[in-house]
Specification:
Order of helices and strands: HHHHHHHHHHHHHHH
Helix content: over 70%
Number of helices: 15
Largest sheet: none
Structural class: mainly alpha
Distance between the termini: 36 Å
Shape: globular
């Protein structure tokens, strides 16, 4: 009886804690959403509120003044995210698999060099010269795609997970005549589903939120740039506000600057929030399938 009561109390405490934590995560987005539909004068008078005191869609009207620019930014970001996640996940998985192989002679040395890059780097100037002068990737989407393909942290994580898979499975497959690539594709990858789901999510979020490399290597001459850079320009560029005001035939003082910032944030994060529930079930399924390796 006492055991059942303690178990019930633990579950109740867990539900309450998770509910409060989820509410704390949800409130900031609700504040952004409510402010994006609030008039600028109401924000200046009453401040930010979860519910609009004076409902207005003027901020969204200005943001979508050039819908082709937003649609193009979405397509660029989605393309980079999909391609980068697929290629990066495959490369990280292969690297992690090779570095945990006991029969690979140079695994410790290469692992050290990969770990060394997490402590020291060449700096911004050599990196910029490498991408622009030697690789010639100025104003090229590859300049945004390539830096995010490999991450030392993700490689170390993948290596640690694959290392938990018994090496006897690889040896038995070799005895049956399977090659290294066949073993990797047909045995290692299916058994690494939880790690692949987690690392894939990290890579995808990194590409979706990417703006820094785009700012460095994609000039303003390019019509379509990643969505987060578009968001950054909307928030920080006074030229955008002036151009939007002129295109909308309104005075500069009437431009809803604060609500426009929130509206742009909603435009950038809304699709991710709507898409995540569909991805989550595959993420959970991957963890369940890969949890039992018997």
């Amino acid at each position: 009886m006492r055991t059942d009561l303690s178990g019930t109390l633990i579950k109740l405490f867990g539900y309450v804690f998770i509910s409060v934590f989820a509410l704390c995560c949800l409130l900031p987005f609700l504040l952004v959403l409510g402010t994006s539909f609030t008039s600028e004068m109401s924000i200046k008078k009453h401040g930010f509120n979860f519910w609009p005191r004076e409902f207005s869609t003027f901020a969204y009207k200005i943001v979508f003044e050039n819908p082709d620019l937003i649609v193009g930014s979405y397509l660029v970001t989605m393309g980079i995210t999909v391609v980068g996640t697929a290629v990066g996940l495959f490369l990280v998985a292969m690297t992690g698999y090779v570095l945990q192989r006991p029969d690979f002679q140079y695994r410790n040395g290469i692992s050290f060099f990969i770990y060394f890059t997490t402590l020291f780097s060449g700096g911004l100037v050599p990196f910029y010269l490498l991408m622009t002068q030697y690789l010639g990737l100025k104003d090229n989407y590859l300049a945004v795609l390539l830096p995010g393909l490999m991450s030392p942290f993700l490689i170390i994580m993948m290596r640690a997970f694959i290392k938990s898979i018994p090496h006897a499975i690889t040896e038995s497959a070799k005895m049956d005549g399977a090659g290294d690539f066949t073993i990797f594709i047909r045995l290692i990858l299916p058994m690494s589903t939880p790690a692949l789901a987690t690392i894939g999510l990290f890579i995808a979020l990194g590409y979706w939120n990417e703006w820094y490399h785009a700012m460095l290597f994609l000039s303003a001459d390019m019509k379509y740039r990643p969505l987060q850079l578009f968001l950054y320009n909307v928030i920080t560029s006074a030229d955008f506000i002036r151009n939007s005001a002129a295109a909308s035939n309104v005075e500069l003082r009437d431009v809803p600057l604060e609500s426009m910032k929130m509206a742009t944030a909603v435009v950038a994060t809304g699709p991710v929030i709507l898409f995540y529930p569909f991805v989550q079930r595959f993420f959970i399924k991957g963890i369940t399938v890969g949890a039992v390796k018997g």
